[in-house]
Amino acid sequence: MAETRAYIGRTQRVMLAIGLLPLLAALLSAIGSVPARPPNLAAQVAARMGDSGVTHPLTAVLLNFRGYDTMLEIAVLWLAGLGALALAPGPSAQRGRPHPVLAGLLRVLAPALVMTAGYILWAGGFRPGGAFQAGAVLGAGLVLASLGGVVHLDPARGLQCLLGLGVAVFTGVAVWSWAQTGELLHYPGTTDKWAILAIESMAALSIAFILLTLFDRLTSPSTSLSTSLSSSPPPPPAA
């Protein structure tokens, strides 16, 4: 039986390696097609800033000129959150009575964290900031609330929908813009600013709960990772 399992494991690894060869070839082809002298994209972005709906070039690139890249990045985070829920579908790892010190600290920090996240989200239109940074701040607040026993993660279908809210809104705006202009994420008229604000707001909320989910699930004793670490034999003593 052990020899059969070892054979199956080796076969799976070989099949996986063979399946990854086309991806490796595609990556090498993409690297080989990079021009020796890259084009001056900064000048092109600066020339189209008036059509982006924002005044910061980084936000214009991430959510307008190359918005589909950002949409796929948020989709990757969403899949990571779903994977964490599948890895540990049990109750919250931090379930218990509220910790008085952390709960008191949260009463002081929570308004500041929410205001800071809101400002970072709004400031992304004209200076460095945006959904990812705002979501990280909100996620830190949620993790603190989880550690303090104030927030208990419930891995129900509602949480799964909340994790995918950013992807859903981003996809909805992409489909709407394609129906209006015939181009993906090419916002019609003067709707750029409001479309980007809607995308960033929902993405920040999703990112915050994805970070909370990753923290809670990966610290849960029901995860296969935690189980394997706790059940692994101790290392042999040094000679």
Please outline what is shown here.
The chain is built from ten helices and no strands.
List keywords for this structure.
239 residues; mainly alpha; 70% helix
Structural features, described:
This protein is mainly α and 239 residues long. It has a domain of 153 residues. Helices cover 70% and strands 0% of the residues. It contains ten helices and no strands. Helix 3 crosses helix 4. The protein starts with a helix and ends in an 8-residue tail after the last helix.
In this structure, how is the largest beta sheet organized? none
The Rg value, from CA coordinates, equals 23 Å
Distance between the termini: 33 Å
N-to-C order of helices and strands: HHHHHHHHHH
Proportion of helical residues: over 70%
Mean pLDDT value: 79
Quantity of strands, as a count: 0
Q: Name the overall outline.
A: flat
Number of helices: 10
> Which strand-content bin applies to the residues?
under 5%
Protein structure class: mainly alpha
Runs in which pLDDT lies below 50 for 5 or more consecutive residues are 223-232
Structural topology:
Elements: H1 2-32, H2 41-47, H3 57-65, H4 67-87, H5 100-123, H6 131-147, H7 157-163, H8 165-181, H9 192-218, H10 224-231
